[in-house]
Amino acid sequence: SQKLFGMFDGPGIAGFMGYLQKLGVPNPEVSAYLAGGVEFFCGGAVLLGLWARLATIPLIINMGVAVALVH
């Protein structure tokens, strides 16, 4: 919710797009919505136990890309 909606002092989608642009991510608009959506919806699915095994696959890919780009 921090990346998508700016809750809990998060950057919101515009701030996250700017951050991805500074990192040199191609097409930061699509990447921001995709990464934020995966974290929000798949994280919620895991939290609620809905399709938890399937929901972790996009989360693992998302976190792998984040680690590769930032760290």
Number of strands: 0
Q: What's the order of the H and E elements?
A: HHHH
Shape: globular
Unreliable runs, pLDDT <50, ≥5 residues? none
Mean pLDDT across every amino acid position: 92
**Proportion in β-strands:** under 5%
Q: Alpha-carbon distance between the termini?
A: 22 Å
Q: How many separate domains?
A: 1
> Major sheet, described briefly?
none
* Gyration radius, rounded: 12 Å
Give the helix/strand class.
mainly alpha
Helix content: over 70%
Number of helical elements: 4
Secondary-structure topology with pairs:
Blueprint: H1 2-5, H2 12-23, H3 28-48, H4 52-70
Condensed summary:
This protein is mainly α. It is 79% helix and 0% strand.
Q: Overview of this structure, please?
A:
- With 71 residues, this protein is mainly alpha-helical.
- The chain has one domain.
- Helix content is 79%, strand content 0%.
- It has four helices and no strands.
- Helix 2 packs across helix 3 (28-48) and helix 3 (28-48) packs across helix 4 (52-70).
- The longest helix is centred in the middle third of the chain and has 21 residues, at 28-48.
- The mean pLDDT is 92.
Features:
single chain, 71 residues, mainly alpha, globular
